[in-house]
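Suppose you are handed a protein chain with no further information: no name, no annotation, nothing but its sequence. What can you learn? This example shows the usual starting point.
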Amino acid sequence: MRLVFPLFDGFTALDLVGPYEILRMLPGAEIVLAGERAGQAVPDGVGGLSLVATHARAEVRAADVLLVPGGPGARRDVDDPALLEWIAAVHATTRWTASVCTGALLLGAAGLLTGKAATTHWSAVRELESYGATYTPERVVTHPGDRLIIGAGVSAGIDLALTLAAELTSPVHAQAYQLGLEYDPRPPYDAGSLARRRRRRRRCWGSSTGETEPGGITPWNGVDEISWPGWRRRYVGANSP
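A reasonable first move is to predict its three-dimensional structure. Written in structure tokens, the prediction is:
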């Protein structure tokens, strides 16, 4: 079973590595990391981690599974016609084509999501819908008839991979993989969903109370102020998905 992961400058590592850790356990899995050239070290969005391409994209014409990660580079590469044509061509051969996070923008730009419900990172909803998709805040969206499976932001790639593993083998296999990785998430904070953040903001922080988060950071006073540039500037600078 040939599993193809395209590499491009500025991918988000967890978008790829999370699903990889699940899908590598599929029977007969062959992992292909497709870059511009074989042997190329491709940096992630921060530049602190690189993966080495096992194959040149031009050599990869078919796949059982094509999984497209997101990241800052995905937002840029929606204007790369060669990459988009390659995605569309390989998709025509797959059993399943998948995306994680802003990888959905590349599927959209390649014309694969027109008229379909889809998900992506919360910061990329407008861009996703500009390609004719309808955003839904689900963690994973599947279109079996179109052989498409789409994951939300970053960590949702693991959920996507378990869903995909069940489709390719069985739910029992997928549960075994989940147990093998001890994937039993219990995050210390209930802050991983923008929708839940909006529902809880008034209850937790009030509308204009002047309360501060840990470290003395004053919360946004209104949910409409939660924007991707603002989030990056306030919390992590350039080191973001």
